[in-house]
Amino acid sequence: MNKTMQDMQKEVDTYISQFKEGYFSPLAMTARMTEELGELAREVNHYYGEKPKKSTEKEQTVEEELGDLFFVLLCFANSLNISMEKSFDMVMKKFNTRDKDRWTRIEEGEEQ
Fold this sequence. Notes:
The chain is mainly α. It has helices at residues 5-16, 26-48, 62-79, 84-97. This is Nucleotide pyrophosphohydrolase.
């Protein structure tokens, strides 16, 4: 089953709403996103960079860390009543207008 962004935001809201603490403040949420981004960067560095994982370090995946970051992003959006669908549409409009000629396009029939 494919979930829409709205479905995902609702699912996160249902989860968070069961706790008295609710959503963290915007500042705390930014700190949590930064923390999760650091964990993602660490995993990327282990898998694709020059820094191997220590034998004592827990095995995690880039996919798991992306999921953690995405969850916090949805929490942040929900806490500020921001629709991620609307936010996504806004950024795609920007990329398709302001940045439409920024990159070299692949010509039809040309291999990537």
